[in-house]
């Protein structure tokens, strides 16, 4: 029994040690990994933003082409209001006859 314990204990210890996680990486490796991940995220965000701008520009272009082919006036300006008749100009006599105020 003692001999079986001597054989089992080292195998048990080796099994326990093999289940442990690997040693943590160096700080520089972790920093570089985080930096690369942030750069990839930034590139992906910029790429998505660029695609959205391209889609918006293409949509405007297509709408303009369709409007031109259909002769649509996309800007509806209100009609000009009717001007009221101007009052007639009164002629001023050359001589004024003024009466004194009493």
Salient structural properties:
102 residues, rod-shaped, 2 helices, mainly alpha
Short description:
With 102 residues, the chain is an all-alpha fold.
Description of the structure:
The protein has helices at residues 2-18, 27-69. The mean pLDDT is 81. The protein is rod-shaped. It has 102 residues and is an all-alpha fold. It starts with a helix and ends in a 33-residue tail after the last helix.
What is the mean predicted local confidence, pLDDT? 81
Beta-strand percentage range: under 5%
The unreliable regions are none
- Number of helical elements: 2
Could you say which structural class the secondary elements and strand pairing correspond to?
A: mainly alpha
Main beta-sheet strand count, sense and barrel state:
none
Global morphology: rod-shaped
Helix content: 55-70%
**Helix and strand succession?**
HH
Q: How many strand segments? A: 0
Computed CA radius of gyration, to the nearest angstrom? 45 Å
How far apart are the first and last residues' alpha carbons, in Å?
148 Å
Oligomeric composition of the shown chains: single chain
């Amino acid at each position: 029994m003692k001999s079986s314990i001597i054989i089992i204990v080292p195998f048990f210890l080796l099994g326990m040690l093999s289940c442990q996680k690997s040693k943590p990486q160096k700080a520089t490796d972790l920093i570089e990994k985080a930096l690369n991940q942030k750069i990839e995220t930034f590139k992906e965000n910029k790429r998505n933003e660029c695609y959205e701008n391209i889609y918006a520009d293409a949509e405007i272009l297509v709408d303009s082409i369709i409007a031109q082919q259909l002769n649509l006036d996309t800007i509806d300006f209100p009609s000009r209001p009717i001007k009221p008749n101007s009052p007639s100009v009164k002629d001023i006599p050359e001589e004024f006859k003024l009466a004194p105020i009493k």
